[in-house]
């Protein structure tokens, strides 16, 4: 990893003169006053909590926030914020909450080829990297990853799609604690709560208040519910007026108690966390 002797030379064939590196006179290593470290630690923790809470003080439910933000996108979205599958293969897999193929853990030593790199060039890169395989303990392998980007709305694919997987969080309407967790949960493989296989025992879909063109957003799926109960408090639950044809008209009504709150946007519920740990065996 050493430069050649004429690197950055002003004239071909001339060796540049080395310059000594000045000694740093920074103030590193000075002792802090007693108690300062503990005080700073408490300030950082307090700041972290405020950052999580400050953007959730309004009363907008999570569905309204997401659907409003997604008015600006040209993407084809299912259920308001799920990217439509690009292939028939994914259309077959999407209804399942738990798809083992999409839950493989990411590699520790990632390698990703951009599409702009041609096959001949890729082969040269592979040949060069094989030397690392032969002569060192490193192994470079392709990998799957989530790329969080500032696109035209709040949306994600459902579960692992392979390679670069875009999760959109538009900075003008999506960068809120609960909304971020909602979209990440989609990327982890979780459907909206009200599309669970057993949802009809817990909520009533008011089809008369839903435009027929939006009815597909309320399709019930054959989900694997991981032996967990229906969760009205899930960060993945729609608000009660999602896709309603008229303001104030409920598209979803909890049963038997219609006053149960749904569509919270504060953060993951207890059962959201339990399901992630069950699904990923952690």
Automatic annotation (TrEMBL):
Keywords: Cytoplasmic vesicle, Disulfide bond, Glycoprotein, Hydrolase, Metal-binding, Metalloprotease, Protease, Signal, Zinc, Zymogen. One of its GO terms (biological process) is proteolysis. GO terms for molecular function: metalloendopeptidase activity; zinc ion binding. Residues 1-57 are annotated as: Disordered. Binds 1 zinc ion per subunit. Zn(2+) binds at residues 182, 186, 192. Its main location: other. Pfam families: Astacin. It comes from the Eukaryota. Residues 12-26 have a biased composition (Low complexity). The keyword Disulfide bond applies. SMART domains: ZnMc (SM00235). The active site is at residue 183. It is found in: Zymogen granule. GO terms for cellular component: zymogen granule. Its cofactor is Zn(2+). Its EC number is 3.4.24.-. Residues 96-282 form the Peptidase M12A domain. This is Metalloendopeptidase.
């Amino acid at each position: 990893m050493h430069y050649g002797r004429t690197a950055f030379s002003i004239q071909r064939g001339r060796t540049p003169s080395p310059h000594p590196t000045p000694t740093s006179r920074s103030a590193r290593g000075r002792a802090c006053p007693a108690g300062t470290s503990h005080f700073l630690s408490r300030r950082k923790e307090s700041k972290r909590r405020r950052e999580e809470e400050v953007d959730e003080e309004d009363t907008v439910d999570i569905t309204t926030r997401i659907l409003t933000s997604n008015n600006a996108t040209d993407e084809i979205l299912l259920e308001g914020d799920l990217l439509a599958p690009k292939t028939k293969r994914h259309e077959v897999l999407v209804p399942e909450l738990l798809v083992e193929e999409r839950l493989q853990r990411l590699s520790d030593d990632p390698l990703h080829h951009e599409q702009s790199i041609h096959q001949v060039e890729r082969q040269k890169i592979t040949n060069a990297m094989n030397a690392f395989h032969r002569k060192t303990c490193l192994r470079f392998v392709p990998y799957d990853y989530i790329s969080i980007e500032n696109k035209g709305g709040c949306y994600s694919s459902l579960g692992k799609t392979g390679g670069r997987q875009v999760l959109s969080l538009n900075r003008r309407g999506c960068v809120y604690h609960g909304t971020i967790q909602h979209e990440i949960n989609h990327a982890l493989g979780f459907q909206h709560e009200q599309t669970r296989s057993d949802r009809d025992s817990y909520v009533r879909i008011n089809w008369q208040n839903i435009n027929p063109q939006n009815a597909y957003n309320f399709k019930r799926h054959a989900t694997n519910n991981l032996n967990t109960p229906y969760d009205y408090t899930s960060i993945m639950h729609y608000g009660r007026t999602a896709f309603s044809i008229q303001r104030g008209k409920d598209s979803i009504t909890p049963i038997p108690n219609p006053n149960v709150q749904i569509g919270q946007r504060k953060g993951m519920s207890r059962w959201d966390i339990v399901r992630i740990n069950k699904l990923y065996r952690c």
